[in-house]
Amino acid sequence: MTPKLNQIKFWLRRQSRASGRLVHCKWLFIACTILFAGMTGNGYATDVNSQDYVPAPAGTNVFAFYSQYTTSDEYKSTLGHTITHNTGIDVYVNTLRYVHYFEVLGFAGDLQVLVPVGTLYNAKIAGASLDAAAGIGDPILATGLWLLNDPAAGRYFGLVQYLFVPIGQYERGESLNLGENRWKYDLQAGLYQDLGNNFAFQVTGDVVWYGANDSAGNGWQRLTQDNTYQLQAWLSYAFAPTWSVAAGYSRYWGGDEYLNGVATGNATHKDQLRLELSKFITPTFQVLGLVQRDFNTEGGFPENFRGTVRLLQVF
Question: Can you identify the CATH homologous superfamily of domain 3-314?
Answer without folding.
Answer: monomeric porin ompg (2.40.160.40)
